[in-house]
Design brief:
- By secondary structure, this protein is α+β, with helices and mostly antiparallel strands.
- It has a single domain, classed as endopeptidase fold (from Nostoc punctiforme) (Alpha-Beta Complex), CATH 3.90.1720.
- Helix content is 27%, strand content 24%.
- It has a four-stranded antiparallel beta sheet. It has a two-stranded antiparallel sheet with strand order 1-9. A two-stranded antiparallel sheet has the order 4-5.
- The radius of gyration is 16 Å and the shape is globular.
- The N and C termini lie far apart (32 Å).
């Protein structure tokens, strides 16, 4: 499935400065695509039709905090899934150390960064009211754009943040965005490999 996307700002995904620092007034956010290999992730793979079945957004290169929708632990029951603040060395990823990932770095303006952080902060303040969008998986599979109140899957949430922060504008509803759709619009990843082996130095 192709996606027609118009970037709000035509900057490369990876900075060109030797120091790895953004130009004055520029910031970076990070998209992290993963596949854990759990039974549920294999079901998602059939729906999303991509190698990576999960996507998170991080606001700094350390990836110490990854924001998404899913479970905090594989021991949690599926209906307990919701908005989560993941850690690359904790929670699900500590339980599944073989998780592979691919990381992209997006250059954004200070205003876009501030807006994205503000949206994430809103989700954090009301974390308990947000649930995983299981009905949305069905609607996504049949191509029906339907926004379910206070419910998201991981890629819907990331697309929502990107669109509402002004970082990207999509020509299809964010409720139809899959991890493979987002990944297909990016280039030049800063890291590919085991999530546990990632360090901020890869983003420089």
């Amino acid at each position: 499935m192709s996606v027609d996307l118009v970037p709000a700002v035509a900057y490369p995904a990876r900075p060109t400065l030797p120091s790895g620092q953004a130009p004055a007034g520029r910031r970076h956010i990070y998209l992290v695509f993963t596949h854990t290999g759990t039974r549920f992730s294999k079901v998602l793979k059939m729906v999303t039709r991509g190698e990576y079945t999960h996507v998170s957004i991080a606001m700094d290169a350390s990836l110490d905090r990854l924001y998404s929708f899913g479970r905090n632990s594989i021991k949690e029951r599926p209906w307990e899934a919701g908005f989560v603040c993941e850690q690359k060395d904790g929670g699900v990823y500590r339980e599944l150390p073989g998780t592979r990932c691919i990381v992209y770095q997006l250059e954004v303006s200070e205003e876009q960064y501030r807006r994205a952080q503000g949206i994430i902060d809103l989700f954090l303040r009301h974390q308990s009211v947000f649930k995983y969008n299981y009905p949305g998986l069905f609607f996504m599979s049949i191509g029906w754009a339907k926004q379910c109140k206070r419910r998201f899957v991981c890629s819907q949430f990331v697309a929502y943040v990107l669109e509402n922060s002004g970082t990207m504008r999509f020509h299809k509803d964010f409720s139809l965005m899959r991890p493979t759709d987002l990944k297909g619009l990016l280039y030049a990843p800063v890291y590919t490999g085991m999530l546990r082996s990632y360090s901020a130095a890869h983003a420089l």
